[in-house]
Amino acid sequence: xxxxxxTGVALITPFKExxxxxxxxLKELVRFQKQNGINYIVVLGTTGExxxxxxxxxxxxxQTIVEENNAELPLxxxxxxxxxxxxxxxxxxxxxxxxxxILSVSPYYVKPTQEGIYQHFKKVSQAATLxxxxxxxxxxxxxxxxxxxxxxxxxxFENIIGIKEAAGNMVQAMEMISQxxxxxxxxxxxxxxxxxxxxxxxxxVISVIAEGFPKQFSEMVQLGLSRxxxxxxxxxxxxxxxxxxxxxxxxxxxxxxxxxxxxxxxDYVRLPLVEATENLSAKISAxxxxxx
Length: 292
Prior knowledge:
Layout: E1 6-10, H1 23-35, E2 40-43, H2 55-69, E3 75-78, H3 84-93, E4 101-105, H4 114-127, E5 132-136, H5 138-141, H6 147-156, E6 160-165, H7 170-179, E7 185-188, H8 194-199, E8 204-207, H9 209-212, H10 214-225, H11 229-247, H12 253-262, H13 278-291
Parallel strand pairs: 1-2, 1-8, 2-3, 3-4, 4-5, 5-6, 6-7, 7-8
Helix pairs in contact: 1-2, 3-4, 4-6, 6-7, 10-11, 11-13, 12-13
């Protein structure tokens, strides 16, 4: 699945002051990604504040991105949860006509065993007509997908094509790369570890920082895939301070502050999230001025 090698972005959902979806800003953000080297877009992931959107708003976000993208970039739709039956039902009933894959997070809160995780994704695989990318993010789910479980799923189900690995553990990432089939995509879900993972054999990234600095970050990933290590690390160290900044007060408050500075969208989020503080916004603004 070469279309998912490189830089994907987990797109935000921009809001107006009244916290309604800002459709025009969302269109502008899609254009910004297309114009600056991004390889694919993830729709309605955690960064898109999926949990705070109602059904109609989710459909609005989906259709706005699909129409503005105009089939130019591959699209991945986030469908996951901790109710296996409900996830499978959504996969079967969702309109997936314009999407190229599903990104499905490991069940959160309930803390399943490794066998439970395996059985969950077995059902997801059987329900899906599109390729499935697993998503391991133990900082949010409170359970970790082990390399052995990932390898088992990769070997047992042809339509499970990759994993967004966001445990922040480089040793675990290398174990996943070494234990899974050669064509299985181990995709970084940690912006700071993207380049080391790519150089270790990873397939790229699904990124937050890249949607704010798409040209620079996608160039870094391509240099890494081409094994132009020194040039890639120059960009890594240029961008690294911004990675710390955008996650300092949680995601997506930080990246929305980047977009506000760039004039692409306002920084409004929905409760229980809150906007970045004035202090953080000032630091982000100064970084954007420096890197432009």
